[in-house]
């Protein structure tokens, strides 16, 4: 499935990080702000298919996809071909000055792919946070209301408004306030950590009750939610939660915004995670997986909401850059041609089965969850549900030494998350799972 010219193999030939990476880290320390961190400080030379190769010649199995970005793999053939052609034709004119076809073609693809048969419009931006900010702007302009409802454990970005919408304090918010106003946080459905069994619908009623009493239904411009939370720890709300929220929004005149920035573009086994329960959001924010690694983001939604903003009200110098649009068209074509949503489901089935075995074998594995190629293990102190961030950190470090890149997540930092490229060859997926199993056994 992977057409990368790089050998699809795990190969560790130096300490991790190796001497060349260490030398670059020394240069980095003197030049790069320390506020920008790195999970695994090996410097990359090439990447493709399911591997990342560093400057010391180590080849890592990639269970991160640059945080769910390179679903189609790094330097995927049609992405590279489209980018080469576009970059030779023109690199930027600014769509707000003189437009070009690529931008329109991406918006046409989004209209076809985003859930719902209603008429849609899109606007393109550079980053996920920028898309979320613009979704809020559009919802406010369309409703004439101010309040934004978000959820516990949410992650929506690092700009001022999206910091306010993000739940976790350190490292995302600590010291960076004051934050934007009119943002209200409601309780999520978090099946593993509910104090007592509660259905998705009842968990939605619990959130709605608080919104109605503390915010007022008539003040809510939008409810913004990740269908499966990303940075929050791959939390999948109980069945019925999302449909009930969407229904409440419809009845209350609030805009239902699905933040599909991490879940979108085949990652969870559907084009978009909202499809799983047949939810049709009013607005959808996308970014990460959209363009095979180039920076591009979008808000897509009901024509009457999107067109409520006066001309000139939306935009940005680089939004919908022609090279990024060309990359997106290549990436989306590949997703369709290679049926990557189906492939994600296959990855999920393999991973859930293997990780289920690990949960039965190890008392510190509290929960295994996720859909498609978005799978997580939540680690706890054996005998209860007390989060064990140290265990997650140690397992991640052990995987990194052995040549498997994994990421952590979660409000309590105790979740290992797995986001392999959807083009990951089977033998690498299985080898990655074996490395993981050994790291669990060593803990
Ligand atoms: C990553 C992410 C964002 C922010 O995207 P950036 O491109 O980093 O600004 C917003 N929402 C979700 C769900 C994300 O995963």
From TrEMBL:
Keywords for this protein: Amino-acid biosynthesis, Aminotransferase, Arginine biosynthesis, Pyridoxal phosphate, Transferase
Enzyme nomenclature, EC number: 2.6.1.19, 2.6.1.22
Pathway: Amino-acid degradation; 4-aminobutanoate degradation
GO biological process: gamma-aminobutyric acid metabolic process; L-arginine biosynthetic process
Signal peptide: none
Cofactor: pyridoxal 5'-phosphate
Organism domain of life: Bacteria
Record InterPro entries: 4NH2But_aminotransferase_bac, Aminotrans_3, Aminotrans_3_PPA_site, Class-III_PLP-dep_AT, PyrdxlP-dep_Trfase, PyrdxlP-dep_Trfase_major, PyrdxlP-dep_Trfase_small
Pfam family, one: Aminotran_3
Molecular function in Gene Ontology: (S)-3-amino-2-methylpropionate transaminase activity; 4-aminobutyrate:2-oxoglutarate transaminase activity; identical protein binding; pyridoxal phosphate binding
CDD domains per record: OAT_like
Known catalytic reactions: 4-aminobutanoate + 2-oxoglutarate = succinate semialdehyde + L-glutamate; (S)-3-amino-2-methylpropanoate + 2-oxoglutarate = 2-methyl-3-oxopropanoate + L-glutamate
Annotated PANTHER family: ACETYLORNITHINE AMINOTRANSFERASE, MITOCHONDRIAL, AMINOTRANSFERASE CLASS III
Family: Belongs to the class-III pyridoxal-phosphate-dependent aminotransferase family.
NCBIfam families: GABAtrnsam, PRK06058.1
Record protein name field: (S)-3-amino-2-methylpropionate transaminase
């Amino acid at each position: 499935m992977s057409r990368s010219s790089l050998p699809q193999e795990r190969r560790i030939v130096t300490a991790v990080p190796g001497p060349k990476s260490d030398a670059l880290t020394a240069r980095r320390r003197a030049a790069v702000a320390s506020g920008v961190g790195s999970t695994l400080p090996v410097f990359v030379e090439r990447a493709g298919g399911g591997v990342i190769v560093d400057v010391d010649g180590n080849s890592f199995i990639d269970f991160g996809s640059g945080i769910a970005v390179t679903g189609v793999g790094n330097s995927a053939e049609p992405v590279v071909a489209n980018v080469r052609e576009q970059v030779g034709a023109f690199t930027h004119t600014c769509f707000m000055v003189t437009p070009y076809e690529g931008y329109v073609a991406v918006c046409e693809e989004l209209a076809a792919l985003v859930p719902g048969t209603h008429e849609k419009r899109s606007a393109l931006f550079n980053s996920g946070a920028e898309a979320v900010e613009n979704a809020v702007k559009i919802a406010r302009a369309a409703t004439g209301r101010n309040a934004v409802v978000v959820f516990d454990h949410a992650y929506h970005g690092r700009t001022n408004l999206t910091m306010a919408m993000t739940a976790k304090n350190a490292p995302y918010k600590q010291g960076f306030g004051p934050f934007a106003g009119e943002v209200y946080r409601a309780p999520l459905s978090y099946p593993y950590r509910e104090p007592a069994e509660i259905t998705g619908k009842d968990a939605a009623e619990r959130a709605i009750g608080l919104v109605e009493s503390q915010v007022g239904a008539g003040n809510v411009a939008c409810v913004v939610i990740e269908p499966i939370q990303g940075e929050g720890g791959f939390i999948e709300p109980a069945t019925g939660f999302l449909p009930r929220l969407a229904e409440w929004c419809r009845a209350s005149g609030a805009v239902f915004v699905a933040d599909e920035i991490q879940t979108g573009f085949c990652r969870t086994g559907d084009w978009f995670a909202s499809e799983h329960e047949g939810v049709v959001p009013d607005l959808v924010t996308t970014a990460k997986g959209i363009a095979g690694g180039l920076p591009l983001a979008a808000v897509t939604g009901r024509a009457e909401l999107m067109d409520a903003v006066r001309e000139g009200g939306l935009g940005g110098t680089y939004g919908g850059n022609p090279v990024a649009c060309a990359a997106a068209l290549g990436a989306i074509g590949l997703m369709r041609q290679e049926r990557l949503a189906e492939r994600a489901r296959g990855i999920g089935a393999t991973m859930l089965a293997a990780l289920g075995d690990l949960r039965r074998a190890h008392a510190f594995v509290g929960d295994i969850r996720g859909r498609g190629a978005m799978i997580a293990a939540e680690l706890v102190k054996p005998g209860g549900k007390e989060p064990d961030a140290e265990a997650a950190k140690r397992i991640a470090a052990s995987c990194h030494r052995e040549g498997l890149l994994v990421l952590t997540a979660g409000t309590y930092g105790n979740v290992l998350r797995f986001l392999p490229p959807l083009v990951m060859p089977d033998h690498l997926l299985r080898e990655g799972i074996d490395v993981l199993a050994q790291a669990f056994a060593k803990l």
